[in-house]
UniProtKB/TrEMBL annotation:
<dbReference type="Pfam" id="PF00857">
    <property type="entry name" value="Isochorismatase"/>
</dbReference>
<keyword id="KW-0378">Hydrolase</keyword>
<dbReference type="InterPro" id="IPR000868">
    <property type="entry name" value="Isochorismatase-like_dom"/>
</dbReference>
<dbReference type="InterPro" id="IPR036380">
    <property type="entry name" value="Isochorismatase-like_sf"/>
</dbReference>
<dbReference type="GO" id="GO:0016787">
    <property type="term" value="F:hydrolase activity"/>
</dbReference>
<feature type="domain" description="Isochorismatase-like">
    <location>
        <begin position="8"/>
        <end position="166"/>
    </location>
</feature>
<dbReference type="InterPro" id="IPR050272">
    <property type="entry name" value="Isochorismatase-like_hydrls"/>
</dbReference>
<protein>
    <submittedName>
        <fullName>Nicotinamidase-related amidase</fullName>
    </submittedName>
</protein>
Amino acid sequence: MAEPSPFLVIVDPQVIFAADGSDWQSPFWADAEPNILRLADAFGERVVVTRWLPTANRSTSWGDYFEAWPFADVPADDPLYDLLPGFEDLSPHPTVDEPTFGKWHQQLRDIVGDATEVVVAGVSTDCCVISTVLPAADAGARITVVADACAASTAENGAAAMHVMGLYPPQVQITSTATVLASRATTT
């Protein structure tokens, strides 16, 4: 029996992480975005998009977090949390909305399966991407992180996150958009 085709998980392509003037704007989003869109085109219906939403319980450490980042302490339906133009209709699956950095929870696992192959791209490499990748690998998924389709908060933080994720082979592999696209071209 043939292995199912991998899913592409696009982590948090939201206004808050890309908009000019946002305190959380990744300076690398403009470089990552075209690679993410190329990957999405190649994965077709096997694309899942996630969003981080500020719905966590404020009586926990999330309350401290929002005190540190008051600009982000707005309702979940605020335009800051919207998907960026071009990302709203990339997936036939519902958007996976989570109030946590990591997205490897039941909603995402229900779509991609628990022990499957997942290709990951998105923002921020050093927060939501790494927080999704490591629990997914720990749960038994085979993860490929597309380095040039991820956007970090800083070059140093992005390099550190890639280094940490790279410490988990064979569960986690780090690669490039060109390599993933070439692989897909030979298997489809």
